[in-house]
């Protein structure tokens, strides 16, 4: 037997025999559902044989036969009713277990999210892609066809999605484009570090979505539930469908606040804050500006995360404030980093280490935040140093700046577009999907090994736009992405170490060294971050004005 657990109440398995039943009973199962019609296979025992053995073992049984490939809506309803009435746990079987897993998926459609159902069955080894529309439609067979179809559909109206839409329109003004995103507000997330440092007001980092999406692009204000790439269809919540000739996927990533035990319950109070959320960044500044003594902890989770420098930016700006007002001597700064280095590109580390020394901050590598007790002001970390056994350490705090672990959105992780780690699987040069040739991706959601920053999306957008246009014209990919990302490390108020690099940590400075040396803290880099980059974002990047981001052509020998 190859029993796969689906839920606490249900497991599924391929065909069983009467001889298997005693072991099934011994494993703790109390009922068996047969979803395979008698006579389907020449070597198949009848349900009556299974039922007789089950009764002898004290198990209840139900015969709910389903012809392969013909799971009806009523069948799923009956299966759900059986799960509610039979004593559990229940074992269901058919030839391979797929029909049983399908029945469970459809029966739970109004009880669990589509992503949860797809993730659960995927973990058990069953692909529910063939019934995803029915799952989205509450377990019922949809009667509608595609609601609308466009030449290009873009999923996500963040930095990457709007930028690539504007870049496409600049190249092909008559292109029919739709953007799918349920959000009302668009945020300039790079500004939240400065909100937490008391430099920006939060209102400066947000605008209404409707004011930013180009007027001649259709905005579908809805959430994506699933993808059917073989049919060129995106399925929305409520089972509406959108067809496309070409798809661009850019929904960003998911901040997994629930990945740290106790965090959600205490965020925004008890000295627990994070610049990774719009409403919490002002609380960071409140804590920093009011703190006169005690222990301040700054955490960094395992990679990948958006803006890998942001966890320590919060630490530097806080340390600078305490340094300037004379309280630093009474504040113990601790940087808890799940990784093993201060920054991934070695050329920038010496400048950062000088500020670690200036603020007398203690570096604790391989420390990953596991849980937090806000009321008690205690944080517990898993310590996983190389070649040593994992341990745990609990630390007191007066203030803690938390960066949550980060993953791809649920509807991406369970989709056919994802790699084994859940990110959209693209060619790192052309940003085209490795399996589906009419799909591209950019921004934080795709799996190219670059820094996940707005600056990276700014460079990726014209690459995707250029290559999509080349595909429309019947040509091969025209340009390539070099992995560029930028991380302006705010080491003090008024100075920044401007880290700019590409694949493999190669330095990719935008300016000559005599104008701006990114490996050293400069006022020029601060001016860029505080004054120049916000209008570049709002008025250039999101409007298809590709200043200083001309894509690199693919040579004939590439």
TrEMBL record:
> FAD/NAD(P)-binding domain location, by residue?
150-268
| Source superkingdom | Bacteria
Q: Which InterPro entries match?
A: BLH_phosphatase-like (IPR005939), FAD/NAD-bd_sf (IPR036188), FAD/NAD-binding_dom (IPR023753), Prot-tyrosine_phosphatase-like (IPR029021), Sulphide_quinone_reductase (IPR015904)
Q: Which CDD domains match?
A: PTP-bact
Q: Which SUPFAM superfamilies match?
A: (Phosphotyrosine protein) phosphatases II, FAD/NAD(P)-binding domain
> Where does the Beta-lactamase hydrolase-like protein phosphatase-like domain lie?
2-110
Please give the Pfam families that the UniProt record associates with this protein: BLH_phosphatase, Pyr_redox_2
PANTHER family from the xrefs?
SULFIDE:QUINONE OXIDOREDUCTASE, SULFIDE:QUINONE OXIDOREDUCTASE, MITOCHONDRIAL
Instruction: From the Swiss-Prot or TrEMBL record, give the protein name.
Output: TIGR01244 family phosphatase
């Amino acid at each position: 037997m190859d029993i796969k657990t689906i839920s606490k109440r249900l497991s599924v398995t391929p065909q069983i025999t009467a001889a298997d039943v005693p072991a099934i009973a011994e494993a703790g199962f109390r009922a068996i559902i047969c979803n395979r019609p008698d006579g389907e296979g020449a070597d198949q025992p009848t349900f009556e044989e299974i039922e007789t053995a089950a009764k002898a073992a004290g198990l209840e049984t139900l015969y709910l036969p389903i012809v392969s490939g013909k799971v009806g809506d009523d069948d799923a309803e009956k299966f759900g009713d059986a799960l509610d009435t039979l004593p559990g746990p229940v074992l269901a079987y058919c030839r391979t277990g797929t029909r049983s897993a399908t029945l469970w998926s459809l029966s739970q459609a109004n009880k669990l999210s589509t992503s949860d159902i797809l993730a659960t069955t995927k973990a058990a080894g069953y692909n529910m892609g063939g019934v995803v529309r029915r799952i989205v439609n509450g377990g019922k067979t949809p009667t509608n066809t595609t609601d609308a179809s466009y030449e290009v559909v873009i999923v996500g109206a963040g930095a990457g999605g709007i930028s690539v839409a504007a870049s496409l329109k600049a190249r092909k003004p008559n292109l029919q484009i739709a953007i799918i995103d349920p959000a009302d507000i668009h945020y300039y997330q790079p500004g939240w570090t400065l909100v937490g440092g008391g430099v920006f007001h939060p209102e400066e980092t947000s605008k209404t979505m409707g004011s930013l999406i180009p007027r001649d692009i259709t905005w579908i204000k809805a959430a994506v539930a699933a993808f059917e790439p073989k049919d060129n269809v995106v399925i929305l919540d409520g089972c509406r469908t959108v067809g496309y000739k070409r798809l661009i996927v850019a929904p960003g990533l998911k901040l997994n606040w629930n990945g740290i035990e106790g965090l959600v319950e205490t965020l925004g109070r008890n000295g627990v804050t994070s610049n990774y959320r719009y409403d919490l960044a002002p609380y960071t500044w409140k804590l920093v500006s009011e703190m006169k003594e005690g222990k301040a902890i700054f955490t960094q989770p395992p990679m990948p995360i958006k803006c890998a420098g942001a966890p320590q930016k919060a630490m530097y700006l806080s340390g600078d404030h305490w340094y300037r007002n004379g309280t630093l001597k009474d504040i113990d700064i601790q940087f808890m980093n799940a990784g093993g280095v201060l920054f991934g590109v070695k050329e920038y580390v010496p400048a950062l280490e000088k500020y670690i020394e200036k603020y007398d901050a203690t570096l604790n590598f391989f420390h990953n935040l596991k849980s937090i007790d806000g009321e008690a002001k205690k944080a517990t970390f898993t310590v996983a140093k190389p070649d040593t056994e994992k341990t745990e350490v609990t630390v007191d705090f007066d203030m803690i700046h938390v960066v949550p672990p980060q993953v791809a959105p649920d509807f991406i992780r369970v989709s056919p577009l994802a790699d084994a780690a859940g990110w959209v699987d693209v060619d790192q040069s052309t940003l085209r999907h490795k399996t589906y040739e009419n799909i591209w991706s950019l921004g934080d959601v795709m799996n190219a090994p670059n820094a996940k920053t707005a600056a990276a999306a700014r460079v990726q957008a014209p690459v995707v736009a250029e290559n999509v246009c080349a595909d429309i014209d019947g040509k091969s990919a025209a340009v390539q992405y070099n992995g560029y990302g930028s991380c302006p490390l705010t080491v003090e108020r008024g100075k920044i170490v401007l880290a700019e690099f590409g694949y493999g940590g190669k330095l990719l400075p935008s300016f000559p060294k005599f104008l701006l040396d990114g490996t050293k803290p400069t006022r020029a880099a601060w001016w860029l971050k505080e004054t120049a980059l916000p209008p570049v974002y709002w008025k250039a990047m999101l409007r298809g004005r590709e200043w200083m981001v001309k894509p690199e052509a693919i040579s004939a020998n590439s």
